Amino acid sequence: MGKKYLAVLLSVVMTLGMMTGCGSGTQENSGNDSESGSQQGSQTEENGKEATGKEESGKKTKVVCYVVNTATTSQEPIWNSIKEKLSDRYEIELLEVDTENLDTVIKTGIASGEPADIYFKQGQYLKPYVDAGQALDLTPYLTENNGEWLNSLDQSLVDVGKYDGKYYSVPMTGVYANFYYNADLLKEAGIEIPSEWTWDQFMETCAQIDEKTEAYPYAICGLCNDFMARNALLSKSNDAGTMEAWGNAEVAVTDPLLQECLEQTKELYDKGYWYPKDGAMITTRDEVIAAFHQGKVAIIGDVNAVSGMVAEGCDFNIGIAAWPKAGKENISLGGADAYFIPSNAQHPDAAIEILKEFTSEEMQQIHADYGFAPVNVNVTSEDPLVQQFADLKTRIYGSELMYISTEMTAFWQDVLIEDYCLETNGLDELLNQMEKLRQEAVQK
């Protein structure tokens, strides 16, 4: 891409400043700290395997890692480097993550009794696995040697996977919701994106794009089609002083506040601003980014972790904008892509050694070189893009209603927005179904 790629990155850097602003830090799950002297701390692997990674027969231990999320472009080079570096001790099998069927893959593996030794999973989504006793408590490993490993990590990201005072995940990268926009298209049309914008300003901008260009104003992949309503709920509930209560599932879903947020999302669809109208609810991330590159869409919603995918192959300047705020403050959904070890993993000690290597300064430097904020606090980057993305975590809030159960998560992602916008089900019916899921989760 050469000079054009540099121009894209420079444009991103220049416009990224608008992403910083008010907001809450990552929400830590409350509870008492676990004792670091747990018996999990220094396990030797079962089935005749020693902690060195060698079996009694002299063969290397095979460690299965369901970890390669190609949406984050640093992951393949990092994991291939780890595989090579530890090849004297482990035969590491790397599997590519299927994000759309992730819970099915994980649950099936755990139920079989032979799960992968490490799974990719967002830290904020781990609660159902923690509650079911299916996630290994990593606290003893993180806190041993006076917290040497824990202290090397970005605490705000580690805390995303903290439940009842115990750590259950190791962060891969921070994830924050944001917009990418076609800066050249909007400049040519005389449209400016404000540094901080309200929902009304966003809708006015969509109307201008619709009137002055041939592009759709907005697109987002089906997997993320709930972002607009979720961000609105965070912002509005913060104004009402109930944001934490919503995250703890203490507020009935039938509360009018959620209805307001959903109605805003449907307005965006009903006005024809959402690409590609009839297929808007089921577009894939690849399809959305392709449409963006082809000039069919002016603004796309996604997360910072896909910035490399958005920039790659793009022949126009890209800008980054904050999510529009529905309330007084712009609080963004977010958290941490992460890894966890199933409690019935065959090789937990090997998995720990591999995760320590992943978070090492050497591997995190690769992460930074690919344009991502490193999770190791001892790694820095001179890249302004990396520095700006690292600042985004100050505005995220990682505790949301959708995380209370896998059923609630699936309902938000697969049912709620699609059925409401397409009028497959009425809003009252959908909210009643969600309220049932909330009550079931609370009673567990």
How would you summarize the topology of this molecule?
Blueprint (H helix, E strand, L loop, with lengths): L1 H15 L44 E8 L6 H11 L4 E7 L5 H11 L5 E3 L6 H5 L7 H13 L3 H4 L3 E2 L2 E2 L2 E13 H6 L10 H14 L3 E4 L7 H14 L2 H5 L8 H15 L14 H9 L3 E7 L3 H5 L6 E4 L10 E9 L7 H11 L2 H9 L14 H8 L4 E2 L8 H16 L5 H17 L1
Parallel strand pairs: 1-2, 1-3, 7-8, 10-11
Antiparallel strand pairs: 3-10, 4-5, 6-8, 6-9, 6-10
Helix pairs in contact: 1-16, 2-15, 9-11, 17-18
Task: Describe it.
42% of the residues lie in helices and 14% in strands. The protein has 444 residues and is an alpha/beta fold. It folds into two domains: 2-22 and 177-332 and 405-443, Periplasmic binding protein-like II (D-Maltodextrin-Binding Protein, domain 2, 3-Layer(aba) Sandwich), CATH 3.40.190; 61-174 and 335-397, Periplasmic binding protein-like II (D-Maltodextrin-Binding Protein, domain 2, 3-Layer(aba) Sandwich), CATH 3.40.190.10. The strands form two sheets. Strands 1, 2, 3, 6, 7, 8, 9, 10 and 11 form a nine-stranded mixed β-sheet that branches. Strands 4-5 form a two-stranded antiparallel sheet. Helix 1 (2-16) packs parallel to helix 16 (384-391) and helix 17 (406-421) runs antiparallel to helix 18. The relative contact order is 0.20.
